[in-house]
Known about the structure:
alpha+beta
Amino acid sequence: MAPLPATTTLSPTVLAIYRAYEAANEQWDSLGISVGEIGNPCDRALYYNLRWASAPEQVEGRKVSIFRTGDMWEERMAADLEAIGVEVWGQQERIRLASGHVRGKIDGRALGIIEAPKTEHLMEFKSSNAKAFAKIKKDGVRKAKPLHFAQCQIGMHALGLSRAGYMVTNKDDDERYFERVEYDADYCLRTLARAERIIFNDEPPAKLHEDPNHKMAFECGWCRHRGVCHEGAMPRVTCRSCLHASPERHGDGAWSCQRWMKPLGLDEQREACPTHLWIPALVDGEQVDCDESAGTVTYRLRSGEIYVDGASA
């Protein structure tokens, strides 16, 4: 019998499991600004998300497994509350704001929270490693997890609630943390006003950092839009990156095309049409000419090359 090989590399069995997770993981574009991302300090990143400027992140299998474990923790924490007499309902209830362009789902609603049994709470369930958990315990959700804080606030605003329950499990030792969050109307109104500026602006907002390699620009290091934002990469060809397409102020996240004077379905948005022209500010260069009759826009790229958008349409 041949000797067993040394396990110095990733086991084929484990690799196959990761690949199975990747194959089952649906790659999708956000249909609007996600409630889970609305607290992102970079306006431009939110604009790029909305405009589908970059391909969806290719999540490796181990990370997909982490996400699935997070889903299980949500179910378990909801069950923990029910076990002590708290009523929990409304899991995955939808949030739609800003004409449907701000969107998300909640982890649930709860009634019977011991600290305030008569007050209905929005619930957000999270799991965390020990290091992040310690920071949450020390500083609270607003300082330690601004994106989670924004998620709680916008959820309360959408549902007309005054309190949220933020519950976190330390994945390393099962310790629980629970914090009641008070609704902040001023924060929500400012956050939604910011979101509407991003959504209904034809051009991308200013960059959070001009130099992505600066020591303070750590957000740029893991941003999937770094190529388009800082490195001269062209965005994806979709209706949302086209100067003819606009988000509408009616309906549930509706978009329309001014070139063809029609509403745009999701499949149409993803595929684009032969008359696609980039939003000029998405091109890494200077616009030097525009020929409306030919349907072209000419740019001098940062490299000095002349590029005619629409010339092959």
